[in-house]
Amino acid sequence: MCRGWPHSPSCPLCRNAPETALHLLAECRYTKRVWNLIADWLAQPTLCPELWRRKDHTFQWWTNITSCDHVPRKGIRSLSLLVTWEIWCERNARVFRKQEKPAPALLAKIKNEAGAWALAGAKDLELLLLRD
């Protein structure tokens, strides 16, 4: 408990595996549920965790999901940044405030935030959102 902050070696989202960046963003069962909901929302099967290629590092995972030929690259990268940010915020809410959102509630938050980003000028993200 450095600096008085609570710390557990287990992932605060699934409480089942060691917390690593790759686990938190791509391998955690909670995170996979969020990515599946996003894939369904946008009708983007490339975002389904079941279709992701095996990865050993976070950078490999990031490159795999953001480098699809038939998806606007800047839009998918913006969306991926938003999703990873919201997953990180959910992680912190669980660790520091003992608050938890189910995956569908996190999806609703991501949808609202994506709309705000589009209104603020993220035109490539807006194009991706318009495809749904």
Instruction: Provide the helix percentage.
Output: 55-70%
Rg calculated over all Cα atoms: 15 Å
Mean pLDDT: 89
**How much strand?**
under 5%
Compressed to H and E, one letter per element, the order equals HHHHHH
The first-to-last residue Cα distance is 44 Å
- Apparent shape: globular
* Unreliable stretches covering 5 or more consecutive residues: none
Number of strands: 0
Largest sheet, strands/sense/barrel: none
Give the topology.
Layout: H1 21-27, H2 29-42, H3 58-66, H4 73-96, H5 103-119, H6 123-130
Helix pairs in contact: 1-2, 2-5, 4-5, 4-6, 5-6
Jot down its keywords.
132 residues
Give structural notes.
This protein is mainly α and 132 residues long. The protein has one domain (15-130). 60% of the residues lie in helices and 0% in strands. It has 6 helices and no strands. The protein has helices spanning 21-27, 29-42, 58-66, 73-96, 103-119, 123-130. The longest helix has 24 residues, at 73-96. It is globular and about 45 Å long. The N and C termini lie far apart (44 Å).
